[in-house]
Amino acid sequence: SLKMASDSPESLMTLCTDYCLRNLEGTLCYLLDNETLRLHPDIFLPSEICDKLVNEYVELVKTDSIFEPHESFFTLFSDPRSTRLARIHLREQIVQDQDLEAIRKQDLVELYLTNCEKLTAKSLQTLVSFSHTLISLSLFGCCNIFYEEENPGGCEDDCLVNPTRQVLVKDFTFEGFSRLRFLNLGRLIEGVNVETLLRPLASLAALDLSGIQLNDVGFLTQWKDSLVSLVLYNMDLSEEHIQVIAQLRKLRHLDISRDHLSSYYKFKLTRRVLNLFVENLVNLTSLDISGHTMLENCTIPSMEEKMGQTSIEPAKSSIAPFRGLKRPLQFLGLFETSLCRLTHIPAYKVSGDKNEEQVLNAIEAYTEHRPEITSRAINLLFDIARIERCSQLLRALQLVITALKCHKDDKNIQVTGSAALFYLTNSEYRMEQSVKLRRQVIQVVLNGMESYQEVTVQRNCCLTLCNFSIPEELEFQYRRVNELLLNILNQSRQDESIQRIAVHLCNALVCQVDNDHKEAVGKMGFVMTMLKLIQKKLADKTCDQVMEFSWSALWNITDETPDNCEMFLNYSGMKLFLECLKEFPEKQELHRNMLGLLGNVAEVKELRPQLMTSQFISVFSNLLESKADGIEVSYNACGVLSHIMFDGPEAWGICEPHREEVVKRMWAAIQSWDINSRRNINYRSFEPILRLLPQGISPVSQHWATWALYNLVSVYPDKYCPLLIKEGGIPLLKDMIKMASARQETKEMA
């Protein structure tokens, strides 16, 4: 079912929501005074649509760097007569006091505020507006919501230094929140009296007090008849806590797990504590004791432990206290405990570090609120993907994608997650992945590259992109990916390995793409960036992959793109060409790439006069005799000269070498090539070659063009015969055969 879910197209609802949010002005809204968004007066939207608009908006602001947040977005939902909100999930810096204030007239049933650090005590007052309808509330990680600003009166000096002082609000309680059943106060700021805060709540069903230190939790017993879920993650427990928990007989979910790295805990789990839970909490279906140290041995003898088939039946449990369970637990959290490695664990789902299933359960359970644990679980997944083979690939990928999206600014998760993605997207897993899933991977990889200039993340992200078919699979994010790579290559201090991968990617991105793409990338500074890299390598006297890829990328990006050819000339490209030729006379690959590029420049009539100098013409003439890379260097040099000759004798504005002498050398070169040569070149169009056929000004150019076509269609007929026909080559060849000025051997070849 997971495969089906990940492959099915987005629902129409999702697509419409996304479209409206990206085009608010053109759909639901108009701009008042050119700045404030206003809803069109004839729009009435139910909560099913409004909730989705708000929740998707938060998601887009968080995960899509191109999406621009709107100052006045939340004011669109200020009037319940036209827009209804019921269940909304807001996160992080996206939400401010005035946003909640804007929707205060709505009858919210569910409000999740996660890590909304910009909210202050003003928002506590706004919460009161929802008190009569609110059933679920989360203030997880809203560390400033109990602070208000206080202006100390009369002290002039102090006002200048610290005009507003943060003061803890002590008088707020949940008085009047008569329907509130589910409450998450995770990571609540110290100093707030939790007992007083919660006392007015009549019947709590679920309470999360993660990361809060309370020495006395006796007050919890006031909900012993209603509390079904209690989370005390990272609370340092004591015997008193355990006694109170044991009285909460209705509990179905209990989480007393901890992060064993975060601080010193006095409390150790014992067999007696687990027995107490099993005996008293008879409705328990989910228990999390991750990160705890066991004070004594809770396991059955190892001989018995290893016997029989793996079982989840409580009677066979390897953990002795759990033999008292009536039925297996739905979930048992044992991450970073020794118990997860036992054979018989009485639970359908176990989080732990023993195998892939346990690790994935851990990532799934802890991603939202516990990035510190999640990053360690993803690290384990990374090892599994790298060393063994992942058996639940789609689940693994989706969990890592979710974690990376959810914690865009968490360095540990970005490092481990991007590394895991590299192994999860490589070729052996390719068949199992849908286009939609692979696009999601690309999105989070690019997010990571944008948010983190950190070397490891950048390298992991670049390597992961290499697992995709380029440019096809990156086409949908073409501009963005190029901008990010150029950004990496323009940094003054560079990691060698990242530089190499980034240049390789840049080269692949401009190979075999449409001209408008190449022009757009050229305008981003692509040509300049590559020339700078070449300049650096020249200064170091090194001709490595970066040098070769940079020239290759310039060859690709100038193909039939005059603007980029002109940039190459304007940024002293020819000077670098000559210097590289002189510095690296033996480097055949390099010569081929450089001459391929100059072939592109020579195709542009307006730029050819710049190639018309004694120095350049001599260099091209001498390269006619080059045997580098088979015929490629000689062939490209001859191509450059063929275009120059095509401009006629009057364009030959130099005394040395003589035009006739160069023509003679060109004939000699063409006659020396093997007509069946296999080629190291890729033509997308024959247009630049075909234009040399119908002319009598330069028979040698005509001959070069005919040789080129003959070689390509005879060695690669399937690829190039259709191209020749499609681009109208046949009538041009027939006409040329009738021309008096054409040489006999050219006509025979035609």
UniProtKB/TrEMBL annotation:
Domain Zer-1-like leucine-rich repeats region: 196-337
Keywords of the record: Acetylation, Leucine-rich repeat, Repeat, Ubl conjugation pathway
Keyword 4Fe-4S: no
Organism domain of life: Eukaryota
Key word Repeat present: yes
One protein family per Pfam: ZER1-like_2nd
Annotated ranges, domain Protein zer-1 homolog-like C-terminal: 404-750
Gene Ontology cellular component list: Cul2-RING ubiquitin ligase complex
Self-association state and partner proteins as the record states: Interacts with the ELOC-ELOB/Elongin BC complex. Part of an E3 ubiquitin ligase complex including ZER1, CUL2 and Elongin BC.
UniProt record similarity statement: Belongs to the zyg-11 family.
Full protein name: Protein zer-1 homolog
Gene that encodes the chain: Zer1
